[in-house]
Amino acid sequence: MARKSMRAEIVGAALEQFHIRGYNAAGVKDITDAAGTPKGSFYNHFDSKEALAVVALEHYGAGLRMEDLADGEVEPLTRLRRHFEFLRDETVRHGFTRGCLIGNFGAEIADRSDVIRTAVHQSFQQWTALIAATLTEARRAGSVRPDLDPEATARFLLGAWEGTLVVARADRSASAFDSFFTVAFGTLLVRGDEHTGT
Fold this sequence. Notes:
Blueprint: H1 6-21, H2 28-35, H3 42-45, H4 49-62, H5 76-93, H6 101-108, H7 114-140, H8 150-171, H9 175-188, H10 192-196
Helix pairs in contact: 1-2, 1-4, 4-7, 5-7, 6-7, 7-8, 8-9
């Protein structure tokens, strides 16, 4: 199998280092050492660590299996639940030591870097749009209340998810995830007749 390009090696190492250590603690040398590339080669591929962070964020987003949210072969709420279950399982697999890189960057560096803030904003917008489209399908199918606002609900779910990740990492426990799924799929995303018990 052909070896990945030096640029791809750097991006992969950056994604790992940013996720484990955070943006500020992961220096260019840490990244190139992890990639097994000379530090001097970094600037042949990237103008700055900021520029690399934006590319790493794009690669992170591609690994979230967002395409599953648009799988028309699966019932909308089922695919939405599976999406969050996949993200939960990834967090558990890493021993609760990593959160969402988008949220991590938003909390750590967005106030000090317009470039990264813009990338974080766009990532959340794209994610919200996919969830909202899934909820629109669910509303059309009668799986949720007819008055559910898909976009507002999508924004709420993402905010709740990011907060859930923080609590799960602090607790080193999956109990926060249990609460998220119970409230999101057992209370919020139900049909009107289920909600009222009629």
